[in-house]
Amino acid sequence: MDLYEFGDNEIYVTKIGLGMAALGRPGYINLGHDSDVGKDKSVAAMQQHANKILDLAWQKGIRYFDTARSYGKGEQFLGDWMLANKVSEPEINVGSKWGYTYTADWRTQVDEGEKHEVKEHSLDVLNRQIKESHAALPGHLDLYQIHSATLESGVLENRPVLEQLAELRSQGILMGLSVSGVNQAAVIEKAISIEINGSRLFDSVQATWNLLDQSAGTALQAASDAGLGVIIKEAVANGRLTPANKNHKFMGKMLKLQAVADRYGVGVDAVALAAVMAQPFVDITLSGAAQAEHLVSNLAALTIEWESEPLTILSDFAETPEEYWATRSQLSWN
């Protein structure tokens, strides 16, 4: 897989990266996650499973890997795998995130009133989690991102946090943010304008953009034009743009998606990823695959050379942000 410049930053990345959200913890909201990671969900079994996917991703040429403090043991699994395989810093780029604390304690279901992860964008959490990330990923933390920055959390107005991020950036770590929810565009636009001591603070943005939620596109183009690297998450909408989606209300769109997939001789997931990669503002599209066959199928997106007719067929897929995120919020942890 070829390497491409990541925004105006001095690192080079592959067009497809591997996200660790579904590999680092036994419970997640992706459709079919329970069976994807296997019956044995012990830490040892899941680490062994993650290692197989990481091995395959590396073999297939993926050189950007994305994780977070809240992805269970995602950082640890990735760090242990790099150490065991003697992966050197120049060979790989690793991004992680801070701001959520994993609280499920390796359970797939939590009690009423509990959460799988708790969000807090405070300076205390940043200072604690950057140490934890360095410990889990020794020598391999290239990009550190605010996890799901929102206007409501106030993190983009928290001067002590922003100054600490600037300090980390001065030490050679790229600074980024991920965004989620109906106001992604507004958060991206605000982040682009933030400067500390006369220098732009953020080097990248990670956002949801897929056939179903295209609302952040204009803001992401503005971020790209400003020199930020752009990472796209949830390209298959947590499984809604894969055969795992059995919702009868979605069958009309799934049939259209399948028709395009048949035209190119790939799976519907590859079509979804290729539609993302066709956007001019995208640097990295994350695969969240938790099965080897799914990763191979995702990578088939690289073979698609778009024609106008298939893109026309997919042009009416977009939902309103409110509809998309309401549906996502109803996905159960499994």
Walk me through this protein's architecture.
By secondary structure, the protein is α/β, with parallel strands linked by helices. The chain has one domain: NADP-dependent oxidoreductase domain (TIM Barrel, Alpha-Beta Barrel). Helices cover 37% and strands 17% of the residues. It contains 12 helices and 14 strands. It has helices at 33-36, 43-59, 74-84, 123-136, 159-170, 184-192, 217-225, 251-264, 268-277, 292-299, 308-313, 321-329; strands at residues 3-5, 12-14, 16-19, 64-66, 93-98, 100-102, 117-119, 143-149, 174-179, 195-196, 199-200, 204-208, 229-233, 284-287. Strands 3-4-5-8-9-12-13-14 form an 8-stranded parallel barrel, surrounded by 6 helices. Strands 1-2 form a two-stranded antiparallel sheet. A hairpin with a 2-residue loop joins strand 10 and strand 11 (199-200). The longest helix is centred in the first third of the chain and has 17 residues, at 43-59. The mean pLDDT is 96.
Would you summarize the structure shown here?
This protein has one domain (3-329): TIM Barrel (Alpha-Beta Barrel), CATH 3.20.20.100.
